[in-house]
From TrEMBL:
Residues 568-595 form a coiled coil. This is histidine kinase. Its EC number is 2.7.13.3. The keyword Cell membrane applies. Residues 133-183, 367-419 form the PAC domain. InterPro entries: GAF-like_dom_sf, HATPase_C_sf, HATPase_dom, His_kinase_dom, HisK_dim/P_dom, HisK_dim/P_sf, PAS, PAS-assoc_C. It catalyses: ATP + protein L-histidine = ADP + protein N-phospho-L-histidine. Residues 595-814 form the Histidine kinase domain. Residues 177-247, 295-336 form the PAS domain. The chain crosses the membrane at residues 12-35.
């Protein structure tokens, strides 16, 4: 006979009640009937007849003596459900008021989540199949105490449906006892001892004998305090005595100095009033943990001093460690806040995140993968992600270690470099038409086309100087609500264009209100003026914002191109007139030479400007190596070619008589020192000693200072060029007499062969010529020195010996 039928010959048995609903199955499950209520409301049947009332009275009387909480639950033929009865013991056992409404939901809330699903499934199965229900389940009372319940119920099929009757029992003591026994069985390899209520040993197993180094017969009957007096006053004594008093089990880990070992100790109260001790030597584990802590502290110390974001995670716990850089990188205030976040939210793109997960699983890690991450505030940044899987020292855990390097700034720089490169390339493509313009009137239109193709500013205006007026030639306004009307203005007017012409460089006006004129600028607020030499100016404008520094530099390059073109056109016009009026072929030759030099300067200035911009961009981006060396080589080669062209122009001016001299006083010793200072770095880089002799007093002469400076510079540069590493160059100036000053430049260089000295001052002449010549240069430096010396009324002499050195002596009138 089972428990239910033993209660009542009429089969009035009691049940831990559950209901199965016709609506959705699981909803019926929610009708589980731990639903107690006052006696007058516990029955949901129609008003009972006398027999039913008597039955209920007997049922209530039985609940006073039952060892659990009885319940009845009815499921009607159409699936309707009702609580028929629940005992008042629900309050004492469960700590829940026996009110029917919402009782089941309240009961389920107190079942731990770890067991709740299994509990609900068992109820649903019993109600659906009309079969016996049996389940053990933990229950957390409102006061925090956890108890274990055994629910058992059997269905009684009736004409009007089915009635479940059953009982809910408290089995907490049995569960605890079973767990204790399981622990005993599991710990049979541990050292086990038992003492009675007087602390005398009553049991010592073999492991304990080996641990203490004493046989059981030597310990039985002796007190724990006699055998281990050093435990007095320690945590051991505190824990032992607490268990003896409270009769509650305890577990702790502690180091026992006498044995130099760590123990995991479990203490249980025995029914005879004594205690049972279980000792597990965990010294090796503690040592491993200590070493692991030391390694982790070292790792933490290292990672806290790096700029990369370092983290460690597990599949179960998520992120278990992150350095400060990682926390700050993702915008969190603390590690705890970071760990509480969902790691999946660290990725800006869910699809990219899933792809990375798959890639990591396939490859066992990631190596420098570029990822778009998301910060706590929703903003994004670009990072390089590297990960790897690492086994824990105990082999029971797999860590996912990773590092994130933020490269947002680098990406911005790369994008900026690409944008600048595209803009520079577009500028040079667009200016090809400008360089081929054949007349002055076509220049403004071509400049406007370049502005549109490369920059696209709302306002694009070009004005050229005609006499004392700045005359508008081309004006384009796009997307401007009100366009200013261009008019010719005096050069004396305060305009951004006239400011640029006067300054000789780009001028930015951040507010048109700062210009002192009466012009109506419409909706324009910011203007920039770029001079076209003295020929005019380009003006661009915006309704809001500022101008990018690169745009201004490129506009200046464009202005330089336009200056060269307009200058070329003017020179060509003058050349035509000169050709018609020239009386001597030498004059025409020199003018043509000057024009050709300027023609070469046009693409050359483009090359130098581009190389200079590229050098700056590479330096700002921190890029070195071949690209930087190439940019430097292009820049320096362009500079050398420009110097050659300058020499050609200067020579042509000298030959044509266009070079004018002034007769202001010049201090020759000052000029020599300044030139030597300018060239000292070049000499130092080549490993040459540059010395300047002191005249003892200032050497003044009524000569053109610019011409004297050119003579000194050309001679010293020539000496440095032809002097090998380790050599010496000496420069000195002194009064030779009251009417003459002597400038001497002497080197220990390669010298000049005797047969070459006769032509050394001829233009484009060097001792070694052809493609295989040893030294670079145009061969114009000494030719210019000779002509300037002659124009100043002086003389020049050269003394040289091949392989020994050369001395130039220039005598100038004072």
């Amino acid at each position: 006979m089972n428990l239910f039928h033993a209660l009542d010959p009429t089969h009035v048995t009691y049940l831990l009640v559950f209901g199965a609903g016709a609506v959705g199955g699981l909803l019926g499950l929610m009708a589980f009937g731990f639903v107690g209520r006052p006696a007058e409301t516990r029955r949901r049947e129609a008003a009972p007849d006398g027999r039913q009332a008597a039955r209920n009275a007997r049922l209530e009387a039985l609940t006073e003596t039952m060892p659990g909480v009885p319940c009845e639950f009815r499921v009607g033929p159409d699936g309707e459900q009702s609580i028929a009865f629940i005992g008042d013991g629900a309050t004492e056992l469960l700590g829940l008021a026996p009110e029917p409404d919402g009782f089941y939901e309240r009961f389920v809330e107190h079942i731990p989540e770890s067991h709740r699903g299994a509990f609900l499934r068992s109820v649903e199965e019993a109600v659906t199949t009309r079969s016996r229900w049996w389940q053990e389940v933990p229950f957390d009372r409102p006061d925090g105490e956890r108890i274990w319940l055994l629910g058992s119920a059997e269905p009684d099929l009736q004409e009007k449906g089915v009635l479940f009757r059953g009982l809910l029992l408290n089995i907490t003591e049995r569960i605890d006892e079973e767990r204790r026994r399981e622990q005993v069985i599991r710990r049979v390899t541990d050292a086990i001892v038992e003492v009675d209520a007087e602390w005398c040993f009553t049991l010592v197993n073999d492991q304990a004998e080996a641990l203490y180094g004493m046989k059981e017969e030597h310990l039985l009957g002796r007190t724990l305090w006699d055998v281990f007096p050093r435990t007095k006053g320690t945590r051991f004594e505190e824990e032992y005595r607490w268990v003896m008093r409270s009769r509650e089990p305890v577990r702790f880990e502690e180091h026992f100095e006498r044995m130099g070992a760590w123990f995991d100790i479990q203490i249980y109260p025995n029914p005879d009033g004594g205690l049972a001790f279980y000792f597990d030597d965990v010294t090796e584990r503690k040592e491993r943990e200590e070493k692991l802590r030391e390694r982790e502290e070292l790792l933490r110390s290292i990672t806290e001093n790096v700029t990369e974001g370092i983290y460690r995670s597990t599949s179960e716990e998520g992120i278990v460690y992150a350095n400060s850089a990682f926390v700050e990188m993702f915008g969190y205030e603390s590690r705890d806040e970071l760990r509480a976040a969902d790691p999946s939210t660290f990725y800006a793109d869910p699809a990219e995140r899933e792809a990375l997960y798959r890639q990591e699983d396939e490859q066992g890690g990631l190596d420098g993968v570029e990822v778009q991450f998301q910060r706590n505030d929703g903003s994004t940044f670009t990072g390089l992600l590297s990960t790897q899987q690492v086994d824990a020292p105990d082999g029971n855990q797999v860590y996912n270690d990773g590092a994130v390097t933020e490269i947002t700034q680098r990406k911005r720089q790369e994008q900026m470099l690409k944008s600048r490169r595209r803009k520079i390339e577009a500028l040079y493509r667009a200016t090809s038409g400008l360089l081929s313009v054949e007349n002055r009137d076509a220049v403004p239109g071509r400049i406007a086309e370049v502005l549109q193709e490369v920059f696209g500013f709302p306002l694009r205006h070009i004005g050229l100087v005609e006499g004392e007026m700045l005359v508008p030639k081309k004006t384009v306004g796009e997307d401007l609500s009100r366009m200013p009307e261009p008019k010719a203005q005096p050069l004396s007017e305060d305009l951004v264009a006239t400011r640029a012409i006067q300054a000789g460089e780009a001028v930015v006006v951040e507010s048109t209100g700062g210009l002192e004129n009466d012009l109506d600028y419409g909706t324009l607020s910011t203007l920039a003026g770029i001079p076209i030499g003295g020929h005019g100016a380009v003006v661009v404008g915006k309704e809001a914002g500022t101008f990018d520094a690169l745009d201004l530099r490129l506009l200046e390059v464009l202005g330089g191109y336009a200056t060269l073109v307009l200058g070329r056109l003017e020179r060509e016009e003058r050349l035509v007139q000169a050709r018609e009026e020239a009386e001597e072929a030498a004059q025409l030759k020199s003018a043509m030479l000057a024009n050709m030099s300027h023609e070469v300067r046009t693409p050359l200035m483009s090359m130098i400007g581009s190389a200079d911009l590229l050098r700056e961009d590479l330096e700002e981006a921190g890029l070195e190596g071949e690209p930087a060396e190439m940019a430097e080589q292009i820049f320096r080669s362009g500079q050398r070619l420009r110097e050659t062209l300058d020499s050609v122009l200067e020579l042509s001016r000298l030959e044509s008589g266009a070079y004018t001299l002034d007769d202001d006083s010049a201090y020759l010793d000052v000029v020599v020192r300044e030139v030597a200072q300018e060239l000292n770095l070049r000499a130092h880089e080549k490993g040459i000693q540059l010395e300047v002799g002191s005249p003892g007093a200032s050497v003044e002469a009524g000569l053109d200072e610019t011409a004297v400076r050119r003579i000194v510079r050309n001679l010293v540069e020539n000496a440095i060029k032809f002097t090998p590493e380790g050599g010496k160059v000496q420069v000195r100036v002194e009064p030779e007499d009251e009417e003459t000053a002597l400038l001497a430049v002497e080197d220990t260089g390669v010298g000049i062969a005797e047969e070459a000295r006769e032509d050394i001052f001829d233009a484009f002449k060097q001792e070694s010529e052809g493609l295989d010549r040893e030294y670079e240069g145009s061969g114009l430096g000494l030719s210019i020195v000779d002509r300037l010396t002659t124009m100043l009324g002086g003389t020049i002499e050269v003394e040289s010996e091949k392989g020994t050195g050369t001395r130039f002596a220039v005598r100038l009138p004072r």
